[in-house]
Design goal:
single chain; 385 residues; TIM Barrel; three-stranded mixed β-sheet; 11 strands
């Protein structure tokens, strides 16, 4: 197996995820919490790559914020043309074919702008193709509960039409290649186990099922779960249909159920992904939400469980040890900042952050962040191949 990272002089990507909204709104705070840390790569996720020049109230655009990161010496991973409502709008089913075709132009324009900034500051950039491209994630993210992607019916139709789906993904990839021929590319698959996933996300999939029945996309005796597949199937499709340089896997084994604290399966899944895809693999998303519902809070008191922060720290300790023993070529915890006070759907999303924001100030830093930085320093950058 070839090692594309050698082309950019790297053996391991020491990284962190940053939300694009924070890169634009509080770039100085982003740099402040990262300063002096062993993190050299930043994955700028949820970047509205069709709106890169759009300015916030502070007068900065997404490109301005990204340029500040490059000036400070950080290398980037940027997922391109992710189908969030903020980026692509709501795509009605009748416009699906047009949406597939237009992906090339939007991808090329965005990659060209981002590549130009990175190169002008001597930085490296890896472009991601979409995000979490497996069926279960696209349905979940477009569910009437989540609504992160617009129109459940459209994303369901695109998810199960493998040829159309990979036509769009290859249009994005081709746009990247034409804008930045020398840049590395990747895509990522959500690698949580299907049997536990269906149980944890039942509310999302039940509402999606009703929506799809109403629109005639599934029969009355069918459910969304009938269409979902093990993540390894998607990994094989990526191998056969999308010629990217790297594969990313996302893993949130404790997304809903916080106890017992898991994480030990994350490294072996990286090895599985490498074996199936034939590509180098990075852990581009993993984390543990410290959110507790009132019922979870009461249960923790009765059973005398550790605090949510202590359990998050335990998760990181287990997960990082697992990754260290694997063939993974990079780590990108989710996520630098989140805002528990902001509206999040589901509420778990607001509590993954290793720094908690209150307004535009850092109110609290989780012990997990120090643990992660210490781990990066102690293990070096070499990994088994």
């Amino acid at each position: 197996m070839s090692d594309p990272l050698s082309k950019i002089g790297e053996s391991f990507l020491r990284g962190m995820n940053l939300r694009a909204t924070h890169v634009r709104s509080i770039p100085k705070i982003c740099l402040e919490v990262l300063k002096g840390k062993p993190i050299r790569w930043l994955r700028i996720h949820e970047t509205p790559t069709r709106l890169l020049d759009e300015k916030a109230d502070n007068g900065l655009s997404y490109l301005d914020g990204i340029e500040e990161l490059c000036k400070a010496g950080y290398n980037l991973i940027v997922p391109i043309d992710v189908g969030s409502v903020e980026n692509v709008g709501k795509i009605p089913l009748e416009r699906l074919d047009e949406f597939v075709e237009e992906s090339y132009d939007y991808s090329k324009k965005a990659a060209s702008k981002l590549h130009s900034i990175a190169v002008s500051h001597g930085r490296k950039i890896i472009f991601g193709v979409e995000n979490e491209i497996d069926i279960k994630e696209w349905i979940l993210q477009s569910s009437p509960v989540a609504q992160w992607r617009g129109e459940t019916t459209t994303w369901f139709a695109l998810s199960i039409d493998v040829e159309k789906k990979y036509k769009r993904l290859n249009n994005i990839l081709n746009g990247i290649h034409d804008a930045a021929p020398e840049a590395l590319t990747m895509t990522n698959v959500e690698a949580d186990d299907l049997d536990t996933y269906l149980v944890q996300m039942r509310k999302f999939f039940d509402k999606s099922t009703r929506n799809l029945r109403k629109n005639g996309l599934i029969a009355g005796d069918e459910e969304v779960g009938d269409y979902l597949e093990d993540w390894k199937i998607e990994m094989a499709r990526v191998r056969d249909k999308l010629d990217v340089d790297l594969i990313g896997i996302d893993n949130y084994p404790n997304y809903v159920r916080k106890w017992p604290v898991l994480g030990g399966e994350i490294g072996p899944k990286a090895d599985d992904a490498r074996r199936i895809s034939g590509k180098q693999v990075i852990n581009c998303e993993f984390g543990y939400s410290t959110y507790r519902s009132p019922a979870e809070t009461l249960e923790a008191l009765i059973l005398r469980k550790p605090s949510a922060q202590e359990m998050q720290e335990e998760f990181f300790r287990i997960a990082l040890a697992s990754i260290e023993g694997s063939s993974s070529k990079g780590t990108f915890p989710w996520v630098t900042f989140t805002e528990p006070s902001a509206f999040n759907n589901p509420p778990q999303e607001g509590w993954f952050g290793l720094h908690k924001l209150k307004g535009q100030e850092v109110a609290y830093t989780e012990p997990s962040f120090k643990l992660y930085c210490d781990w990066l320093n102690s293990v070096g950058v070499g990994r088994p191949t």
